[in-house]
Amino acid sequence: MEFSIKALAPAKHATGCLVLAAFGKDVLLRAGEQADRAASGALKRALARGDLPARAGATLLLHSVPGVAAQRVLLVSFGERKELGAGAFRDALRGAANALKDLACADATLALLDVHVPGRDAAWHVRQTVLAVREAFYRFDQLKTRKKAPVPALVAVTLAQAAAPVTLEAQRALKEASATAEGVALARTLGNLPANICTPTYLAEQARQLARRYKLEIEVLERRDMDKLGMGALVSVTRGSRESPKLIVLKYRGAGAKAKPIVFVGKGVTFDTGGISLKPAGEMDEMKFDMSGAGSVLGALRALAGMRAPLNAIGVIPACENMPGGNASKPGDVVTTLSGQTVEVLNTDAEGRLILCDALTYAGRFAPEVMVDIATLTGACVIALGHVATGLFANDQKLADELLAAGEDAWDRCWQMPLWEDYQEQLRSNFADMANIGGRPAGSVTAASFLARFTRKQRWAHLDIAGTAWKSGRDKGSTGRPVSLLVRFALRHAKLR
Ligand code: BES
Ligand code: MN
Ligand code: ZN
Asked: How far apart are the C-alpha atoms of 147 and 53, rounded to whole Å?
């Protein structure tokens, strides 16, 4: 799907579908008023009949409107004008895109750039529009024998603006959003692929493909390398599995050698059975999404490389399966991490922190500007924040503030949780330097507190995406979060916007 921005007169523009914004029961904006005048008031009359509810995302489709060159006009409600916020804007765009999905048109023109969310600039509106449409049109049907692709497919989307010229800023926002959408789609597909296909080896192969396509540097450590380095925690998780673990290191160089890299570390558990501390059977299939952190790191690097962002970024992905088996770790086992600290594995289902602690120690070798790990780490985070906000933990408040702001900007929000020393007490062990679990209270905080013991020398943040990386139920599937947050963070951090 190709996006472009053009200055055009909406009524005269030949297109499969012209999308116009409506507020309340009677308000159109500039583009809508123009089209309505050309149609001798047909649009306002349709609105007045009351068929378009004043709810962001509701749509009304009109065919062959007299005086309008478009084959169809899609009116989309943005709710009540005085209440328009970023969320309603996204809802409206999603509604419009979903309506477009059902149409047999090859091109559409969105005359929505005169809709203004207070406090957001023109580039923001462009980015959000592209991302919302691409998100709605994402399909995962590669494992179905009968695909239900619409004919013809929507291939060209024009964002119409009222007056020339189209600014360089808008063009840049379009490029950034298109690349970001590609990254989101990659993360979603990797998440949606089942664990018999998306293995650690598969993730490494995907990383290699990205490296070839975007000229990235890649290194993949094998089990023997992990053993030799002393990654006792990572290796302990993978012991029960027949799949070879991989530690993937992918480097994007968009700036000079002096610019310190942002390092993203993504949890890549391609399936989490819990190991000997076996999970209950219900919904265990969803543990194929336990590599979503890894998927988001690959997605973010693809996005940054695709838009040739002038910054350096490195992805570090510990990838393995967590399985029970004759060789698996047992509760009570003590392992020695790459940092030298010892860990008593009281619960083999708290495996994410075990693979991440070694990956974070390893990531320290790249002299990072900042380190951010992304992980479906705790069920407790879902209890705390539900499926709306990603949990944010940081040992540096400036970094936390940057991530919070990037989340607001991308509308891929996170919420900060405490990382106080007081919580460390819960990780006390009688037999090793620490235990890998801290009991029921504040489960997502003690998991983050565990990681904090391995990142004392760096500016570091942790994103717990257990509640936001995928949806359950009828719409079960990966969301691609937090790729757009990570991309926005990297660009803002590099002082680009
Ligand atoms: N991958 C899970 C976390 C998870 C569970 C994410 C459910 C999303 C939905 C993680 O490896 C895990 O099992 N965590 C345990 C930790 C506990 C044993 C301290 C959990 O949250 O139950
Ligand atoms: Mn687990
Ligand atoms: Zn897990």
From this structure: 33
